[in-house]
Design goal:
Blueprint: H1 12-37, H2 44-51, H3 59-66, H4 79-99, H5 104-128
Helix pairs in contact: 1-5, 2-3, 3-4, 4-5
Length: 129
């Protein structure tokens, strides 16, 4: 099953371009919003909702990565959000303990970088094959 994640030789140029492009977009997001959203708070959802102005962003992800118990989302509305956010949440809690900063933005940027990269690769394979 892990074989599908291997980059084929004819995909290397596309993979490099996708890695750089998606990485650049996520780096811009981290540079812009990390100083604003790295502070520790008791109401992370309001902080993200009032600060983060990016089309399509849902402040719930930031809230869940920052404080698992402080969100009031209905689990039936987004059941996979909680499941897929557990490991990044635990990583963010470890980084908060080590650094004293909320690292939800860079943690989510790494996750989105990986998913964005493989989205390009898989779309290429679907369209090609």
């Amino acid at each position: 099953m892990l074989k599908m994640f291997k980059i084929k030789s004819e995909e290397r140029a596309l993979a490099l371009a996708a890695l750089l492009f998606v990485g650049l977009l996520n780096a811009l997001m981290v540079v812009e919003y990390f100083p604003l959203l790295s502070q520790l708070s008791t109401d992370y959802h309001s902080l993200a909702r009032d600060t983060f102005h990016l089309s399509g962003f849902d402040a719930w992800t930031y809230s869940i990565l920052s404080d698992w118990h402080g969100w009031e989302i209905n689990i039936y509305r987004h059941p996979l959000l909680a499941v897929f956010s557990l490991i990044p949440f635990l990583l963010n809690q470890g980084l908060i303990a080590l650094t004293g900063f909320n690292c939800a933005v860079p943690v989510m940027a790494v996750v989105e970088w990986l998913f964005g990269f493989y989205s390009v690769i898989f779309l290429y394979r679907i369209l090609r094959e």
